[in-house]
């Protein structure tokens, strides 16, 4: 996806609860790219350059790790508050 598309998808998936601005997103994308978590490619769409971002293998492994950490965190919170 390209930057604007990412912001809109986040908004859609969270039913408007998460509004990610492009000003906050692009520095994060640049950081992830520098760390080798994502890669980018520029494609010309309707005469305009559009930069698409893709997860690398390293990024996919990190995603799995962080999803598992979040699940454990939420499970522990649920355990604490439902005693």
TrEMBL record:
InterPro entries attached to this UniProt entry: Metal_resp_DNA-bind_regulator (IPR052509), Tscrpt_reg_PadR_N (IPR005149), WH-like_DNA-bd_sf (IPR036388), WH_DNA-bd_sf (IPR036390)
Pfam families recorded: PadR
Superkingdom assignment: Bacteria
Domain Transcription regulator PadR N-terminal: 1-62
Annotated transmembrane regions: none
Descriptive protein name: Transcription regulator PadR N-terminal domain-containing protein
Native source species: Chryseobacterium ginsengisoli
């Amino acid at each position: 996806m390209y930057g604007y598309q990412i912001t809109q998808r986040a908004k859609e998936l969270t039913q408007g609860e998460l509004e990610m601005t492009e000003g906050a997103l692009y520095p994060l994308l640049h950081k992830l790219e520098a760390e080798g978590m994502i890669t980018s490619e520029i494609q010309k769409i309707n005469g305009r350059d559009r930069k698409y971002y893709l997860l690398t293998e390293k990024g996919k492994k990190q995603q799995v790790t962080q999803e598992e950490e979040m699940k454990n965190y939420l499970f522990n919170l649920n355990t604490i508050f439902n005693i």
